[in-house]
Write a structure and sequence with these properties.
It is a single chain. By secondary structure, this protein is α/β, with parallel strands linked by helices. About 55% of the residues lie in helices and about 10% in strands.
């Protein structure tokens, strides 16, 4: 029988081969794995969390098993276990195989207890974050950053619309680092950062120095909603110097924003370039399957039984963001607790009928949508409404029609009339075309969301 030291050598050689075949950043992110034990049938390898367990199992298990097979000449099973706070928790089986030829482990030391971080919410953790197609890349990157802050993906920018989980993911990074190290973690909104900065410059020199020291000596700085800093030149300058100090010291920075940093207006170019120099990821609205998973997980956490047909009803009727899903679920759970009755499909339809009626922007005209869309694509409003059918005009025209249908009360017939007297079927075809593109090309949805923001800003100033 092969000795345990030989298995260790085999595992190390497996990692060396994998490292030579994949990108170094990918290796650092997912192959910080710890050999536990092995026999002729199984290698037991430790991973740091359930999230890592699921990702390594789905992405790399067969790949790793194949590498081991090439070295020892036979197929073995890769058994992934979760090592958390010095305790081994089996992820794939409840009991260890008997007669393992390994030394007995020393008793685990009691896990260190830490006080809760005063700025971070307990419910915003990786364990409560539901991963789907809309956010898997962002979640993977966030987990990697939490494991090795300041070494890669620095700075990290998470952007997307309201209620998509930006703050949750940001705070999950902070909570993980706080729980597993002595690092100084600071979470703050851009608005609070601005208010503190204003107060400091109105106070004594000691107050100014205290403000600078607080942020420039952080190990992890998390700033939420940096779009709030638009037009605030003094605060932007202070953040610029704070950024440089932290970046030079290899300290991790994480920002959230409601749009790509390139779309921020009245934002200093040098700060824009620094925030954008790291990893930028966007969060999209969750798809149907992810919405169902979110509702089921939150319903379970609330202790209320929600039937599958109710989950299906809510998931099909609310596709905007996670916050709206939670609001609908809170309505149902509150009813169940206060009235003492189970939630049924009929009750859900009755209690959520107003929620299911999508709000529209009645103050936005088709003319404004046409004007802003035309400017975006360097066209005139008359060209959007005209008869030309070149691709450079048809695509923006279809986007403008789609936005009209999505954020206004106008019917497809009324929209068609405003676009050169086109038939309502033309409008429907255009909208379907854009919907198809959104499903296959995330850049299209980003363009549309950026346009909608510009349209609302323009409308507010009109």
């Amino acid at each position: 029988m092969t000795e345990i030291s030989d298995y260790t050598i085999i595992w190390n050689e497996t990692l060396n081969q994998i490292r030579s075949e994949i990108d170094e950043q990918e290796f650092q992110t997912w192959f910080n794995l710890e050999f536990q034990k092995a026999d002729e049938k199984e290698f037991t390898i430790a991973v740091p969390s359930l999230f890592y367990h699921d990702q390594v199992k789905s992405r790399y298990q067969s790949y790793i098993e194949g590498k081991i097979e090439n070295l020892i000449g036979k197929r073995v099973n890769l058994n992934l276990v979760i090592v958390s706070k010095n305790e081994v928790l089996q992820a794939d089986q409840e009991t260890q195989p008997e007669n393992q030829n390994v030394p007995a482990k020393e008793p685990a030391k009691p896990a260190r207890t830490k006080e809760k971080h005063t700025q971070l919410r307990n419910e915003y953790s990786f364990d409560t974050y539901v991963v789907g197609e809309n956010n898997s890349f962002a979640a993977n990157a966030a987990q990697a950053i939490a494991r090795n802050p300041g070494t890669a993906y620095n700075p990290f920018l998470i952007y997307g619309g309201v209620g998509l989980g930006k703050t949750h993911l940001m705070q999950a990074i902070g909570s993980y680092v706080h729980a597993n190290s002595d690092s100084k973690v600071i979470y703050i909104t851009a608005e609070t950062f601005t208010n503190e900065f204003i107060s400091s410059i109105q106070d004594t020199d000691r107050a100014k120095a205290a403000f600078k020291n607080k942020y420039r000596h952080a190990d992890i700085l998390l700033i939420d909603d940096i779009h709030f800093l638009q037009k605030k030149d003094g605060t932007q300058e202070e953040l610029f110097y704070t950024f440089n100090a932290l970046y030079d010291a290899n300290k991790q920075m994480v920002f959230t924003c409601d749009r790509p940093v390139s779309d921020l207006k009245d934002f200093s170019e040098r700060l824009r370039s620094r925030v954008g120099r790291g990893l930028n990821v966007d969060l999209q609205p969750p798809n149907y399957e992810t919405r169902c998973a979110i509702l089921k997980k939150k319903a379970h956490a609330s202790g209320i039984s929600i039937p599958d047909d109710v989950i299906d009803l809510v998931s099909k009727n609310i596709s905007t963001n996670i916050r709206d899903l939670e609001s609908a679920l809170n309505t149902l759970t509150a009813y169940a607790k206060l009235v003492g009755k189970p939630v049924t499909l009929e009750i859900a339809q009755q209690r959520l009928k107003d929620v299911f009626a999508s709000p529209r922007q009645s103050n936005i005209s088709i003319e404004i949508i046409q004007r802003v869309t035309a400017d975006k694509f360097h066209l005139s409003s008359n060209e959007l409404k005209g008869k030309k059918r070149t691709q450079s005009i048809v695509y923006p025209r279809q986007i403008a029609m789609y936005i009209c249908r999505e954020i206004t009360e106008y019917t497809t017939t009324e929209i068609g009339q405003e676009f050169g007297g086109r038939d309502h079927t033309t409008v429907m075809h255009s909208c379907q075309k854009i919907e198809d593109l959104i499903r296959t090309d995330p850049a299209v949805d980003s363009t549309i969301q950026s346009l909608i923001r510009d349209i609302k800003d323009y409308s507010a100033k009109s």
